[in-house]
Design goal:
Blueprint: E1 2-13, H1 19-24, E2 26-36, H2 39-44, H3 53-64, H4 71-85, E3 91-99, E4 109-117
Antiparallel strand pairs: 1-2, 2-3, 3-4
Helix pairs in contact: 3-4
């Protein structure tokens, strides 16, 4: 088994509890890790034997384009859609970071990390 990661995906999205956040939007960063048997791809050097990272990015982008109040909801939706599309993935983890959240002070980010394990 191998861990594949796609890190630092940046988006301008409209997630937040405040009305202004859902109108103006803010910056988010998403990191996604997933465990996959990559043995065939290691030997074949063929994209069809692994998961296309560009397709994964588009999947994440689609979820980031849908407004939510909570980053917890965004993270769960990303993992649910990801596992639905890629049932061969045994474990995954997503981290959604909201940069410069409006919390009344200088704060770099708030984050949620959610892990999903597929039961055999």
């Amino acid at each position: 088994m191998s861990w594949i990661s796609i890190e630092g995906m940046e988006f301008h999205s409209y997630h937040g509890c405040f009305k202004e956040e859902r109108i103006i939007g803010t910056r988010f960063v998403v990191d996604l890790w997933f465990e996959l048997d990559t043995t065939a791809a290691e030997r074949s050097d063929n994209l069809k034997d692994t998961i296309d990272y560009q397709a994964v990015y588009q999947l994440v982008k689609g979820q980031m384009d849908e407004s939510s109040h909570l980053i917890e909801n965004v993270g769960r939706r990303i993992l649910d859609v990801f596992h639905s599309k890629y049932p061969q993935v045994s474990r995954s983890r997503v981290k959604v970071s909201k940069l410069n959240p409006p919390l009344g002070g200088k704060i770099h980010s708030v984050n949620i990390t959610i892990e999903n394990t597929r039961m055999a």
